[in-house]
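Follow-up to my earlier ticket, as requested here are the two runs.
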Amino acid sequence: MAACAIPRTTPRFRDQRVRRHRHPSINVRLSVSSHLQLLEGEAIYVLREVAAQFERPVLLFSGGKDSVVIAWLARKAFAPARNPFPLLHIDTGHNFPETLRFRDEFVARMESTLLVRLVQDSIDLGRVREETGPATSRNALQTVTLLHAIKELGFDAAIGGARVMRKRPAPRSACSRIATRSASGIEESAPGALESLQRTKDRGRALPCLSLSNWTELDVWQYLESENIPLPNLYFAHRRPVFERAGMLLAATPYVELLPGEVASERTVRFRTVGDATCTAAFESGAATPADIVRELAVARSPSAPGASTISARTRRWKTANGKATFERPPSAVGRNGPAPVHHCRQRR
């Protein structure tokens, strides 16, 4: 019986084949559209696997760009059927009104189920204690509300939008064991691969699944531009009253108390995130479209440029001296390229 001859692959075809199948985090020359298609395909695969292997998954939704992208991907992953994941929003009570309006409009457009839990309810029930003073925030308190909501509603998987900050590291696992509350606080177990979802499921626990774990902020904005996905207008240049604190701009809202010497003035600004209004910083920018923001990010010098998203780059601790509230600036907070994007909202210890 004659042996079957196997045609030899030419070097050119072999190189094309490697480039076509390599992971997007590897430094190869791919067009933007091909690069986004690879990221989109990976995220859709994660979402479909979560839907197949879990009984009650939920999508954590804040109304920000990352959760909007995940909800959009979920619709594409299961089209023409509806998104099988309910959207869970933890409302701190200090959210921007624009974010809440967009949340309701977007959920109605996606024909999804929206579940809302309030941090205020956790305060009223004594689960958390709200701090007082001009520099307090409810941002850290929403973790407790989230954990109780997951337990109350019986979810076994939580889909979130955590991703890389700027540079693309080695590919990260899409899923990891959830933080569970014990007598000593919140505990986290070691990450697990997507293929071991079934093995890592435990009764009474939920698994956080990160479908954007290999995306950067630039990837997200390029995808938003290519898909023409709607977003809250906070992300784009607009006029609003702001005041300066610790070298950053905070929105003048009823939730933030102005200190002596602080004066609000109207400026053209935008936000990089739409979280709690008490600690979300704006920066002056003229970027009015996703394309403008893509260009803005492409020329940024450091991970904190064009502006840190929260007002903690220069304020790690709040202290009182001589009866007056003052900021304390740690020496390590400011580097050669400006302040590093450290989170401002104080964590309870």
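Run two:
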Amino acid sequence: MTLHGAPLMFALLISLLAASSAVAQETRIQEIAAAQARKAAAIAAEQARAGAQTAPAAAPAAEQSRFAEIAADQARKAQESAPYVPSAGERWAMAVHQEFLMNPSGFYPYLASVYSGGGFTLGAGYRQFYGDRTHWDVKGLYSIKNYKLFELSTDSWNQSSGRFDVHGRVGWRDATQVAYYGLGMSAPSENAQFRLKQTYVGGDMQVRPGGFSIIGLGLTYDDYTLESGAGSKPSIEEMFTPETAPGLGDSPTYVHAAFSGGLDWRRSPGYARRGGLYQVTYHNYQDVDDTYSFDRVDGEIVQHLPILRETWVVSLHGLVQTTLDDNDVVPYFLMPSLGSGSTLRGYSSGRFRDRHSLLLSGELRWIPNRTALDMAIFYDMGKVASHWDGLSLSGLKSDVGVGVRFHGPLTTPLRIELAHGREGLRLVFAGSAAF
């Protein structure tokens, strides 16, 4: 959302950063106190041993016993002088970790996005395991813009000694006021809106044949219904035509096949402090009426570079999306786009659309709490183009920002960021890692 009350939102984020720093500082103080206690205990024990060795042979047995008792008492007091008690922030973080990240059975809170631009979203789910690392799951989401999602899924993880994962899903989503600004980097800042309804059923598989190699396969049936926007802005048909919004007036149905291959040595796509991803994905969108069929290729690079035992991390991300045949008509709502909480974070969702896109992002992350909290400053830049040769490094849009991330060992259930681009400040709430 665009921030008209920017000072208030900025104060909110600064408060979060201050609280995060306090938690990290408190944790560090407790760690230092515990280390000092252990060091004092070791010194006392060493003094006790030295005193026992140098005591005169004729010393009374009672005196030696008293000296040993004093040394033992000093060691005990040193160990007990700074007992470790988790802070309120740590207790809260561990509660979030248990509730959101530990593959719960039964009911659980669910944070995710219905569709880009839906605003703050909350949801819930219910999960039950019916096999080894295999479960079924039903979940729903609702956003402040009346976006809705309902999904039934099944997932089987790390089968055949961790060599493959299998996922299946069926669901329905309703995005009531998706923004459309037009095509290209010069699209005006005033936008229209459209409503997108999608019924889908499909599945995918990730295979790890050996080493860092990874292969992905996916097949989904997508039935789209496009309608007039339900928000306060003009509906898309009032401002655009099929020439400026390709496919306007139609609601295609697709069989979407995807194949990917690459190298991935991150601990998890949902959260990582080291490792990288180098991957190429081919998409085939086959319109059942053969009117809007097209092919697209995505190339993605993610690299995490730890510094000082992962106290700091430099994270880099690059993504290129290109439509293969210039003669194919790609519907406006399926074109590559920039502007969202995971692309150009300082711009509105879908701010720039066209047949090809380029995104480059960099982050400097500080890890004050390895089990629950990251902080970061970031810089994004990118562009879209109607032709492949238009994806040069000139004319890029950019933004800069700061954020906090609450995470577990493998996932990032909450990410809060404040980003600034040429069109103002934006506050980002997300239920996944930036990349």
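The only thing I checked on run two: Confidence is low (pLDDT under 50) at residues 1-29. Let me know what else you need.
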